Q: What sequence folds into this?
């Protein structure tokens, strides 16, 4: 075509809002993830415990049931302890889900050299990480605080407005406690997925961090005759935070301030790993 | 000039295995992605190093204190709080009269409100063997805390516990997962396995070469770690009596168990990488099985690598003090296997697994999908 | 197992080879005997060229049929890869190695001693003109350099059979010409050089025979002129340059085998389509004696491009 014609013009129509563009990434992640029957079944299995809790709450308010078993009203209590147990159990399921889902987020892009394809568009690394992480944030929310708040609602509806007024803070504890755990798990899942190109190895590392971390923490306590080893045991650390949020005695052996610092350090390390690995280029020396 | 091909015989296989090991060394020993394996091996070394430094430092301090404030263990052993509510306990002056001035004394006040504040005083003594801390509330002795100084016998038990419950089951386990699974499955991910399959090398020879490369790497990394841990363990003590006794036997036993663990777990994960597309499942299965080994009946205990490894450990690790009583009830014991049988069993198991893996390797095809 | 007949020890033989990936067809019922020289595998993407090469080299196993490379089965890698070198399509390399180390390390797998490996490695590096970058890491190479180092690795042990999957990919024109010259040199030594390529005019230039593939089937094989002659449903196109193309056109129309005659745009030639090229050439001799000065006669579609278009292009457009 002769140069003088120059009929090309750039796109001048409306653009989608910049803040929401990172949401394009999860679209394809969800469709890929839910093709896996195993994950679908696991997702459903995560809802079994909350359903059991609903039944428990109902029975706790069902006087005829209590009388039939010779139990007094109030014997099956739905209190902070109940919701803490819920948090702990579902937190464990969230950890397993991270080990299954986390590795498939960044590793395949690294293995197939797809990062430059994303990052050569007007799309920042932060948006990329947020897009991928939002998958985990959503999935883990569906198994933690979302059913938890529903449970709170069920208890509220059966116990009445007075109970809700006295215990509104439990809902807050559920939400904040779950959110903290979700963020920590998501960062760990993303960091391990970015650190190794192989999904399977990333999954192994996610599992190893918790299991080997707990084991090494116990080793530190045994060798150094201290309790600071518990700070490497992330499940104990988050249990400390949860117990404080639910206003229960924190007898985990960890000071609350130290627990927050441990969580902060874990998140910082994960962010550093992500900064190092999520790049559009590779330096060969 | 057309090269003359060496004839296919044991000499050629030896050269080829050496070539495979040479190729793998860079990837297994010096790869950045393998850094976490080094961290797993280094972590317990740093732990024992920290302990050694702490012990040596406190030992010097304790000796200085004991020299400045000498008191016998007999005297300290006799200082007790009153068991009778009507009988008043010993006062601070009583204790000082018997045992002399303490090497450390702390006082603080607790409580508030109408009851007023309570004075709490703690005084520390040492007889070079143990530390005694006497606690006084409002001047009356209410408690005695006796803390044994670390000794080599205790520390060997601690080492046995750390070795068997953390190092073998977790550190070496995950280290072997990372290194051995990478040998074949990792090459497929990197799309570089075909270079090996396009060389005039039998698949079985290739498998042996890769296995030996992984074994060399894990044995070097983890036995070095074990040796350093033992060195750090013995450093704060005068270990000549221990070494003249069972010491060297213990050291070589631990090093041998470490090497055998790499041998056994290595073969399992090499085979898992070849046989299964997603090796995390067999790895998780083996981990669960080995973790549950303590609670399995005697017959099932023997179907695991960890049982034989623990049979070969020179010191039996005591069960965890803080273990849930229910779990403690479930722990069953099984008669330990004789060392010769344990080693033979492990080696035989390794060979069987490698044979099965080599049969799979013969049928290996290159199909680099998205793994 | 009895030794194959002597003729088969100079051929790459595929007998009724099929390979399925589940329900997806890789190649189906392929029977070929590939002699020494440069043989080009030509076909669109997904036609089965790489699958065929992988079958020959044992990287995949056939679902059915048998393969013999100079009398050696692909299930015998110890013997096969002393005779065969394969430059694959995969653009990935073992991590952390320089170009020299890459070739040297895999030569050690042959069981050669250090000195021999060094000599062979440098020899192959020199052949592909990568001496200077040889000490740099392969990960830092350009696309063309990576292509050449793969080629160097394939030829390092002086194989009798070379299988090269798109070896000219990413090469600049100068290097491409040098590489083609290398292929000719290797073929002239009596080796089998099996090349797959999409660059049809180069295939035309270098190949002694071609194998055309489409949808997992071999559509045609042999020397290009022979293949063209067998495509009877497509009349041969001949361009005749002469001083009086219009007069020539009127004379050739009398010939029954001529189906079309078209004046060339520059007015100095005539494009003829004929069903019988040999008969037409005899006619031309007669016409030339009758006052029309014929400058040149050249078949226009006697090349890989045209054959490809007739045999495969038609299928694709369906």
A:
């Amino acid at each position: 075509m002769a140069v003088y014609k120059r009929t090309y013009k750039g796109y001048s129509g409306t653009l989608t809002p910049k803040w929401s563009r990172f949401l394009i990434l999860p679209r394809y992640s969800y469709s890929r993830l839910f093709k896996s029957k195993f994950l679908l079944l696991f997702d459903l299995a995560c809802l079994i415990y909350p359903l059991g809790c609903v039944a428990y709450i109902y029975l706790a308010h069902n006087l005829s049931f209590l009388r039939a078993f010779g139990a007094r009203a109030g014997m099956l209590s739905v209190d902070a302890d109940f919701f803490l147990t819920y948090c702990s159990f579902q937190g464990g399921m969230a950890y397993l889900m991270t080990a299954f889902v986390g590795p498939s987020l960044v590793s395949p892009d690294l293995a197939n050299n797809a990062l430059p394809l994303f990052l050569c568009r007007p799309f920042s690394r932060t948006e990329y990480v947020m897009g991928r992480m939002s998958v985990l944030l959503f999935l883990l929310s569906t198994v933690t605080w979302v059913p938890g708040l529903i449970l709170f609602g069920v208890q509220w509806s059966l116990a009445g407005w007075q109970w809700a007024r006295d215990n509104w803070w439990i809902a807050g504890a559920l939400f904040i406690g779950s959110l903290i755990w979700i963020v920590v798990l998501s960062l760990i899942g993303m960091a391990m997925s970015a650190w190794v190109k192989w999904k399977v190895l990333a999954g192994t590392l996610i599992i190893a961090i918790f299991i080997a971390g707990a084991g090494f923490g116990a080793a530190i306590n045994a060798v150094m005759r201290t309790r600071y080893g518990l700070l490497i045991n992330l499940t104990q650390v988050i249990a400390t935070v949860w117990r404080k949020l639910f206003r229960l005695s924190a007898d985990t052996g960890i000071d609350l301030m130290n627990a927050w610092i441990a969580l902060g350090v874990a998140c910082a390390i994960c962010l550093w790993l992500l900064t190092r690995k999520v790049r559009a280029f590779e330096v060969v020396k | 000039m057309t090269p003359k091909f060496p004839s296919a015989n044991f000499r050629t296989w030896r050269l080829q295995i050496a070539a495979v090991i040479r190729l793998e060394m860079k990837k297994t020993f010096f790869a950045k992605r393998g850094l976490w394996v080094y961290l797993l091996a280094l972590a317990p070394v740093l732990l024992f190093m920290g302990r050694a430094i702490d012990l040596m430092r406190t030992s010097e301090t304790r000796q200085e204190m004991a020299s400045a404030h000498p008191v016998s263990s007999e005297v300290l052993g006799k200082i007790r709080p009153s068991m009778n509510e009507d009988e008043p306990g010993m006062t601070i002056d009583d204790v000082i009269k018997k045992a002399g001035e303490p090497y450390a004394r702390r006082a603080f006040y607790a409580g508030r409100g109408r009851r007023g504040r309570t004075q709490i005083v703690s005084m520390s003594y040492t007889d070079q063997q143990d530390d005694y801390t006497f606690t006084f509330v409002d001047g009356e002795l209410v408690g005695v805390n006796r803390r044994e100084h670390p000794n080599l016998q205790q520390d060997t038990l601690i080492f046995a516990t750390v070795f068997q419950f953390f190092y073998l089951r977790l550190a070496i386990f995950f280290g072997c997962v990372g290194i051995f699974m990478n040998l074949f499955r990792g090459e497929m991910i990197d799309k570089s396995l075909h270079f090996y399959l396009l060389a005039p090398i039998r698949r079985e020879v290739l498998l042996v070469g890769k296995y030996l490369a992984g074994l060399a790497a894990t044995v070097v990394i983890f036995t070095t770690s074990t040796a350093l841990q033992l060195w750090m363990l013995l450093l704060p003590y005068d270990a000549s009596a221990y070494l003249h006794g069972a010491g060297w036997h213990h050291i070589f036993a631990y090093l041998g168990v470490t090497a055998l663990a790499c041998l056994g777990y290595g073969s399992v994960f090499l085979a898992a990488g070849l046989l299964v597309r997603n090796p995390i499942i067999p790895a998780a299965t083996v981990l669960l099985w080995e973790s549950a080994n303590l609670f399995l009946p005697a017959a099932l205990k023997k179907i695991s690598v960890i049982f034989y490894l623990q049979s070969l450990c020179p010191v039996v690790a005591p069960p965890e003090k803080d273990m849930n009583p229910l779990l403690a009830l479930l722990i069953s014991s099984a008669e330990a296997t004789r060392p010769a049988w344990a080693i033979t069993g492990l080696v035989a198991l390794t060979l069987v697994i490698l044979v099965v893996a080599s049969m799979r390797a013969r049928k290996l095809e290159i199909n680099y999908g998205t793994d | 197992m009895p030794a194959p007949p002597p003729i088969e020890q100079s051929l790459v033989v595929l007998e009724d080879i099929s390979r399925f990936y589940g329900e997806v067809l890789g190649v189906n019922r392929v029977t070929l005997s590939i002699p020494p020289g440069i043989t080009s595998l030509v076909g669109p993407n997904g036609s089965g060229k790489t699958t065929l090469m992988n079958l020959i080299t044992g990287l995949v196993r056939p679902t059915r049929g048998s393969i013999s490379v100079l009398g050696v089965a692909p299930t015998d890698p110890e013997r096969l890869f002393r005779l065969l070198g394969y430059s694959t399509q995969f653009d990935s390399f073992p991590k952390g190695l320089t170009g020299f180390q890459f070739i040297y390390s895999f030569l050690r797998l042959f069981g050669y001693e250090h000195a021999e490996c060094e000599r062979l490695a440098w020899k192959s590096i020199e052949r592909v003109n990568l001496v200077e970058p040889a000490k740099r890491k392969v990960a830092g190479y350009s696309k063309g350099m990576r292509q050449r180092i793969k080629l160097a690795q394939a030829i390092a042990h002086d194989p009798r059979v070379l299988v090269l999957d798109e070896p000219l990919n990413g090469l600049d024109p100068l290097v491409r010409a040098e590489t083609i010259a290398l292929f000719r040199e290797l073929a002239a030594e009596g080796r089998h050089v099996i090349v797959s390529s999409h660059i049809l005019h180069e295939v035309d230039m270098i190949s002694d025979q071609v194998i055309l593939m489409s949808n997992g089937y071999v559509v045609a094989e042999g020397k290009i002129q022979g293949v063209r002659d067998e495509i009877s449903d497509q009349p041969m196109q001949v361009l005749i340059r002469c001083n009086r193309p219009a007069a020539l056109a009127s004379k050739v129309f009398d010939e029954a085998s001529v189906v079309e005659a078209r004046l060339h745009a520059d007015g100095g030639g005539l494009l003829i389509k004929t069903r019988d090229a040999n008969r037409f050439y005899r006619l031309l001799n007669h016409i030339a004696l009758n006052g029309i000065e014929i400058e040149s006669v050249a078949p226009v579609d006697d090349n890989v491009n045209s054959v490809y278009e007739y045999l495969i292009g038609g299928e694709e457009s369906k």
User: Anything to note?
Assistant: Chain B has a mean pLDDT of 83. The interface with chain A takes residues 33, 36, 40, 43-44, 47-48, 50-51, 54, 150, 158, 161-162, 165-166, 169-171, 174, 177-178, 181-182, 185-186, 189-190, 278-280, 283-284, 287, 320, 370-371 of chain B (CB under 8 Å). The longest helix of chain B spans residues 152-190.
